[in-house]
């Protein structure tokens, strides 16, 4: 029995199991939160170094304490989920009401028997997914720059995944409209077309929702080379995010 409500808690998976599980979540493009106990003031059932993963459905795999600690870690982990942010969670009987400041969330737990836990929560979001349509120098630059930024870049055409962050069309008139229509129908947050303003307007006039397409794509930074154009487009994606 532990001090949290007098209820037993399961012991953690081995670290290697949690690491393997985290790798599987990353490869499956599923967000999760890593919870690591960094300080435990007795009486607590957890100890520094205990770890757990908070999954998107609220499941907790691993061990960071008993029932009260687990419920709090779940709630705060789901709040943080998918942001890529991190925070220190302090669970202590001294807090009358939840308190939040930069980098810290302090929560009181009436079922604690006196101990304090400090748990570092780190949200792990899947890499931004970008689909690139075309085999032009600019399309190849989109791939290279995106990969350098840590994005997952998929070539087009093909089915657009639900979590696609951007579709970039740089095929210079080849198969543009079907890809643009599919991206708009899928609700992709950023759809960019490499074309002159005049040609782009003519293409978009033939499709519903064309006003959502960025054309000419990218920020106006005086880009000339394919690499510079790619940088300008990714800069626009970041600014709009």
Fold and architecture overview:
- The structure is a single chain.
- With 241 residues, this protein is of the alpha/beta class.
- It contains six helices and twelve strands.
- It has helices spanning 15-27, 67-80, 137-148, 176-185, 197-204, 226-240; strands at residues 32-41, 51-55, 60-62, 86-91, 99-101, 104-107, 116-124, 129-133, 152-155, 164-169, 190-193, 213-214.
- The protein has two domains: 15-124, no CATH class; 129-240, NAD(P)-binding Rossmann-like Domain (Rossmann fold), CATH 3.40.50.720.
- The strands form two sheets. The chain has a seven-stranded mixed β-sheet with strand order 3-2-1-7-4-6-5, with helices on both faces.
CATH class of the largest domain: Alpha Beta
Stretches where pLDDT falls below 50 for ≥5 residues?
1-10
Distance between the termini: 47 Å
As a whole number of angstroms, the C-alpha radius of gyration is 23 Å
**SSE succession:** HEEEHEEEEEHEEHEHEH
- Shape summary: elongated
The domain tally reads 2
Counting H and I runs of at least 4 residues, what is the number of helices?
Answer: 6
Q: What amount of the residues lies in strands?
A: 25-35%
Mean pLDDT: 88
CATH architecture of the largest domain: 3-Layer(aba) Sandwich
The total beta strand count reads: 12
Q: Give me the CATH fold name of the largest domain.
A: Rossmann fold
Oligomer: single chain
Instruction: Give me the side-by-side strand order of the main sheet.
Output: 3-2-1-7-4-6-5
Largest sheet: 7 strands, mixed
Q: Helix fraction?
A: 25-40%
The helix/strand class is: alpha/beta
Query: What is the H level of CATH, i.e. the homologous superfamily of the largest domain?
Result: NAD(P)-binding Rossmann-like Domain
